Amino acid sequence: MIRTILTLQVAPERVRALLGFYETEKILQKSIDMSGAVAGEFAVSTDGSGTILVTALWPDRAAYDAWLANEFRAESNGRMAALLEDDAVGVGQSFEILHEVFGA
After folding, report:
1. To pair with 51 at 20 to 30 A between CA atoms, which of 8, 32, 87, 88?
2. How many domains does the chain have?
Protein backbone atom coordinates (compact mmCIF):
# COMPACT_ATOMS: atom_id res chain seq x y z
CA MET A 1 0.00 0.00 0.00
CA ILE A 2 1.06 3.57 -0.70
CA ARG A 3 0.05 6.65 1.31
CA THR A 4 0.33 9.99 -0.47
CA ILE A 5 0.37 13.34 1.26
CA LEU A 6 -0.12 16.63 -0.56
CA THR A 7 0.59 19.71 1.54
CA LEU A 8 -1.21 22.88 0.45
CA GLN A 9 -0.91 26.36 1.92
CA VAL A 10 -3.79 28.79 1.60
CA ALA A 11 -4.79 31.94 3.38
CA PRO A 12 -6.94 30.83 6.32
CA GLU A 13 -9.98 32.58 4.85
CA ARG A 14 -9.62 30.48 1.65
CA VAL A 15 -9.73 27.05 3.35
CA ARG A 16 -13.51 26.67 2.89
CA ALA A 17 -13.26 27.76 -0.75
CA LEU A 18 -10.62 25.12 -1.43
CA LEU A 19 -12.69 22.47 0.36
CA GLY A 20 -15.66 23.55 -1.77
CA PHE A 21 -13.50 23.17 -4.87
CA TYR A 22 -12.51 19.62 -3.86
CA GLU A 23 -16.16 18.75 -3.17
CA THR A 24 -17.58 20.37 -6.32
CA GLU A 25 -14.92 18.84 -8.56
CA LYS A 26 -15.23 15.51 -6.69
CA ILE A 27 -11.45 15.23 -6.72
CA LEU A 28 -11.13 12.58 -4.02
CA GLN A 29 -13.97 10.50 -5.45
CA LYS A 30 -12.51 10.72 -8.94
CA SER A 31 -9.12 9.56 -7.65
CA ILE A 32 -10.94 6.43 -6.46
CA ASP A 33 -13.11 5.99 -9.55
CA MET A 34 -10.49 6.82 -12.18
CA SER A 35 -7.28 5.45 -10.67
CA GLY A 36 -8.09 2.95 -7.96
CA ALA A 37 -7.35 4.89 -4.79
CA VAL A 38 -8.67 3.11 -1.73
CA ALA A 39 -9.47 6.24 0.31
CA GLY A 40 -8.84 9.97 0.38
CA GLU A 41 -8.99 12.70 3.02
CA PHE A 42 -8.93 16.51 3.08
CA ALA A 43 -7.68 17.78 6.46
CA VAL A 44 -7.01 21.29 7.73
CA SER A 45 -4.55 22.28 10.44
CA THR A 46 -6.16 22.93 13.79
CA ASP A 47 -3.90 25.94 14.42
CA GLY A 48 -5.74 28.13 11.88
CA SER A 49 -2.66 28.56 9.68
CA GLY A 50 -4.35 27.51 6.43
CA THR A 51 -2.18 24.42 6.03
CA ILE A 52 -4.09 21.59 4.36
CA LEU A 53 -3.14 17.95 3.96
CA VAL A 54 -4.75 15.93 1.22
CA THR A 55 -3.97 12.28 1.85
CA ALA A 56 -4.85 9.17 -0.09
CA LEU A 57 -4.31 5.45 0.23
CA TRP A 58 -3.41 3.49 -2.90
CA PRO A 59 -3.16 -0.27 -3.42
CA ASP A 60 0.20 0.14 -5.19
CA ARG A 61 2.47 2.60 -6.94
CA ALA A 62 0.92 1.82 -10.34
CA ALA A 63 -2.48 3.12 -9.17
CA TYR A 64 -0.92 6.34 -7.89
CA ASP A 65 1.07 6.77 -11.10
CA ALA A 66 -2.19 6.38 -13.05
CA TRP A 67 -3.64 9.27 -11.02
CA LEU A 68 -0.55 11.41 -11.64
CA ALA A 69 -0.99 10.86 -15.38
CA ASN A 70 -4.76 11.46 -15.33
CA GLU A 71 -5.93 14.33 -17.55
CA PHE A 72 -8.65 15.38 -15.10
CA ARG A 73 -6.04 15.74 -12.35
CA ALA A 74 -3.87 18.00 -14.50
CA GLU A 75 -6.82 20.17 -15.48
CA SER A 76 -8.15 20.50 -11.93
CA ASN A 77 -4.68 21.42 -10.62
CA GLY A 78 -4.66 24.36 -13.02
CA ARG A 79 -8.05 25.56 -11.79
CA MET A 80 -7.08 25.01 -8.15
CA ALA A 81 -3.92 27.13 -8.37
CA ALA A 82 -5.96 30.36 -8.20
CA LEU A 83 -7.06 29.44 -4.66
CA LEU A 84 -3.56 28.75 -3.38
CA GLU A 85 -0.95 31.15 -2.05
CA ASP A 86 1.59 32.09 -4.73
CA ASP A 87 -0.39 29.92 -7.18
CA ALA A 88 1.67 26.90 -6.06
CA VAL A 89 -0.19 23.62 -6.24
CA GLY A 90 1.71 22.16 -3.30
CA VAL A 91 4.29 19.62 -2.29
CA GLY A 92 3.45 15.95 -2.63
CA GLN A 93 5.14 12.93 -1.12
CA SER A 94 4.45 9.22 -1.28
CA PHE A 95 5.20 6.63 1.37
CA GLU A 96 5.20 2.84 1.29
CA ILE A 97 3.24 1.47 4.23
CA LEU A 98 5.36 -1.15 5.96
CA HIS A 99 3.29 -1.72 9.09
CA GLU A 100 -0.27 -0.90 10.09
CA VAL A 101 -2.78 -1.81 12.77
CA PHE A 102 -6.53 -1.31 13.01
CA GLY A 103 -8.83 -0.93 15.97
CA ALA A 104 -11.88 -3.03 16.57
Report:
1. 32
2. 1
